[in-house]
Amino acid sequence: MPGFLTAHSENIYGLMRIVVGLTFLCHGMQKLFGMFGGMPVEMNALLYTAGAIELVGGALIMIGLRAGWAAFICSGTMAAAYFMAHQPQGALPIQNQGELAAVYCWVFLYIASRGSGALSVDAAMKE
Fold this sequence. Notes:
Layout: H1 3-6, H2 9-33, H3 45-63, H4 67-86, H5 93-96, H6 99-114, H7 121-126
Helix pairs in contact: 2-3, 3-4, 4-6
């Protein structure tokens, strides 16, 4: 890691968690409420559940409240989304348009392993 970033790694992680949580929350808002150019689709229980996990999980990850547990659930959701919706269309994420699901899955697994970290509600509650 470049030396000048080492001193800021905890805050950089916190910012990454916030940005990833916000973008995931937006996916939930798009799916559930048609916001941000979301196309109304025929919703079923699976899509409602996915949208709720995206909305609530993204919010919890973004603010850093029990982010590790939320990210673990979101990681599993993205793994399921990848294998149910994308993988049958091709072997690799670049072929089946599953890059975002795969990246979210792995980033959420990383967040699950680290927890809320800096710039979080959990950190503020410990002070």
